[in-house]
C-alpha cells in the first residue's frame, strides 16, 4: 500500500515570500505524480502531472520537480500572493486509474 | 463549461438515516470516483466505476454503496450513517484508458454532517 506524506501540514507566509512544500513516497511503482490546488468552497484543480524522474513543470509562479529515485516531489511558489492561499494536495497515480493522496499542505498568505 | 457537479454542497442527516449524495458530469468521461476526506486527512478512495463496471476498495465499509445509472450520473448511498461518516465526499472523473489516463477532474465536494 502506497503511503504519501506531505510536509509541512500548514504554512503561513507573508505576501511576496517564496515557499516550497514536500511530497514524499516510498515506492517508484506508480505512473504519475499529481499536484492539485484546492481552494475553499471550490473543486480541487490540477496543477501538474509528472511522470518521469527529473521532470520539472512550471505554471506562472508555481513550479514542481520530481525525483522518483529518492521518492519525493517539491512544489515551489515564487512571490506568494493572497490568492495562492489553498490546500495543496499531492497524489500518486496507481495503475488502474487510482490516485493515492497525501493529507495536503495548507498555505495561508497574509497581505 | 464542462464540469463535475455535486449536489447538495452541504448535507445534514441523522444518525442511522439513509442519505444519498449526487454527482453529475458533462465531460463524458468513462470513469467516476468517490473519495471520502475526513478532517486533516488524505482523501481516500471508496470505489470507482469504469463505465458500468463497479470497483470497490477492499476497506470500504459495506454501509457505503454506489449506483451509476448512466454515463453522466453517479450516486453515493450511505445506508445507515454513523457519526464517523461525517466527512467531505468528493466525486471525480477521468477518461480512463483513452486519451490521457492521468488526470482526474473533481467536483467541489459535499460536506456531510451526521447528528
Describe the structure.
- The complex is a heterodimer of chains A (111) and B (115).
- Chain A has no helices and 11 strands.
- Chain A is an all-beta fold and 111 residues long.
- Chain A is globular and about 40 Å long.
- The mean pLDDT of chain A is 92.
- In chain B, a hairpin with a 5-residue loop joins strand 7 (64-67) and strand 8.
- In chain B, the strands form 2 sheets. In chain B, strands 2, 4, 5, 6, 9, 10 and 11 form a 7-stranded mixed β-sheet that branches.
- Chain B is globular.
- In chain B, 0% of the residues lie in helices and 50% in strands.
- With 115 residues, chain B is mostly beta strands.
- At the A-B interface, strand 4, strand 5 and strand 10 of A face strand 5 and strand 10 of B.
Helices and strands, with pairings:
The complex is a heterodimer of chains A (111) and B (115).
Chain A: E1 5-7, E2 10-14, E3 19-24, E4 32-38, E5 45-50, E6 56-59, E7 62-67, E8 72-77, E9 86-94, E10 98-101, E11 105-110
Parallel strand pairs in A: 2-11
Antiparallel strand pairs in A: 1-3, 3-8, 4-5, 4-9, 6-7, 7-8, 9-10, 9-11
Chain B: E1 4-7, E2 10-13, E3 19-25, E4 31-37, E5 44-50, E6 53-56, E7 64-67, E8 73-78, E9 87-94, E10 105-106, E11 110-114
Parallel strand pairs in B: 2-11
Antiparallel strand pairs in B: 1-3, 3-8, 4-5, 4-9, 5-6, 7-8, 9-10, 9-11
